[in-house]
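Sample entry was shown:
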Amino acid sequence: MTQRTRTRKAISIILGLTLVGAGFFGFGYMLFHVIEPISIKFWLIPITIFAAGAAILWDDFKSS
């Protein structure tokens, strides 16, 4: 496994936290502010964004 530089790891952590936050925000917005029923396809967007951020963070902290 290759060693990551500090700069690359910091960028990766910031990206992961941003994606996790965006996923939470999107999920919360759809949950509390949308009145009409939403198709499951649209629910998958914030869930996928959150999962991508969580995977990035998991890889960063696992390889520490």
Observations:
- The first helix runs from residue 6 to 33.
- The chain is about 80% helix and 0% strand.
- The chain has a mean pLDDT of 90.
- Residues 22 and 41 are 17 Å apart (CA to CA).
